[in-house]
């Protein structure tokens, strides 16, 4: 048995063959046997890394023996023999800081670990290591090798506390200013920028018990911005001395102590500015009865100037908003005096309170002003008489006296106890009021007005005076008039239509007269319509006074057709019209065909008939139109070839083929020139003109 071509164990490691022994004739001489052939491995494959570059990381300050990363290589040879047993080693390390051998690799597993202390990201942030993998158990003389690159990044830990660049900082701020940066604190941190180990956090630990300041961190520069969040008062504090401490968002690494430079002092000076006067009580509430006369002193509404240390200023008062113009204020002392009578029922008073606004201005540079609000609670007095409600109503002329009537009440602009309950009564004069009407009390605010028993009034509108008194001290009385419509009612107590009209002030006779007039008017309209219809019918059936044949008016008359003397009356009138195209002529069945060609020349201008022609001009107009049509080559029939292919049957006229000339000599055709432009071409052909 021989090998016919090279064997590759990595492609196929064994073969299973069956051998047969036969004679020359192909007969089996022995039983077949199985042959098992195993391919012996040779070291013909190098170790291969899955990646050419591997990335790993390790914290700075890690102790020796800290795991960093793992590398692995694969060898296609038999791993049960030395041909497939791979071993690893580090060829080089870049940079050699602090020593050339900061890492080692497990020769069998490929794990890289640290072997020396001293990893510092602030000095070396990344290492590059070349790793070699060799088979034959790492025998460099017989084994095959391959290399890969391992990049190890040293990750940052918070091993550098932030340090302020100065032990003291200073700034200044105008009083009453908020959201203003008054000082800028700078800090140094060697850790990785824009990471929690680098981001600074500032805190005020002393010097600001009332919380006037805060420190915000600039996200770009990491500086601390001291900001005013609550107004400061120069008269209260002229300066602030703050104690500030800075730290990182992340805690310091184990074993790292805070720096003494993490704390500093910040001195902030407060600048005095002209502050506006202020009203100690704002808004100020006072109570007064309405109706106090003009010139009444209400109160003194004075303001205070907060600039009491360095500035001695005068305050002047003025009115800012006085909706009803009821008040005035003294310019120097702020005394409020009325200029008109105070009215609680005014539209400018809301919930019994009248509100006005005043200004207080100092004489500083620049001048400052403050506003104050004065609220006057107006106590009600009985100064408004009650008004009767409703002002109009209706009542049935005959109904049950227990339910028939008008419920009345009153409206009073005053409030209790100057409003209800009300007293309703009828006046003593005229005497007919109490004789026909009566008022029954229902409640403190309501009463019922009705007709007296067995009193009948004609339908109509009656004005009933009613006296209404309120409960004030003393009470106010008002005489009001209610218009009551008395009308006949149906069973439901509602006014009937006739009753409503009667109640409007019309008597029975007037109502009957109106109805008769309406009936007469409708009859006249009906008669007029009938007369119009009848006249229209007569007009349609009436004959003309003259014979229609003699009527020469501009009417459209229908004339009888001429009738046929010939048998071929199956003619097509469309042949007399100019065809737009030849398609409809070609597609027609056999018959009379006419192919006219309209000359391409400008059309002639026909005389325009006046809108209202004179009777004597009609003949001239017709002759002018006929002459223009005869001289118009563009008017049909056109001077073109006409094709006739069907004459008709049974015509009484003889055939044109039977016509012949009886003259053998020359014939004079000059008369054709007198026949007009339609015969001009014939005149040119047969006339006596010179030939071209």
Q: Could you tell me the number of beta strands? A: 35
Sequence of strands across the biggest β-sheet: 4-11-10-7
Class per helix and strand makeup: mainly beta
**Overall shape:** flat
Strand content: 25-35%
Percent helix range: 10-25%
Detail the poorly predicted runs.
none
CA-CA gap between termini: 121 Å
- The radius of gyration over CA amounts to 64 Å
Task: Figure out the total of helices.
Answer: 6
Mean pLDDT: 81
Largest sheet properties: 4 strands, mixed
What this model shows, in words?
With 692 residues, this protein is mostly beta strands. It has six helices and 35 strands. The strands form eleven sheets. Strands 4-11-10-7 form a four-stranded mixed β-sheet, with no helix packed on it. The protein has a four-stranded mixed β-sheet with strand order 13-20-19-16, with no helix packed on it. β1 and β2 (28-38) form a beta hairpin. It is flat. The mean pLDDT is 81. Keywords: Calcium, Cell adhesion, Cell junction, Cell membrane, Glycoprotein, Membrane, Metal-binding, Repeat, Transmembrane, Transmembrane helix.
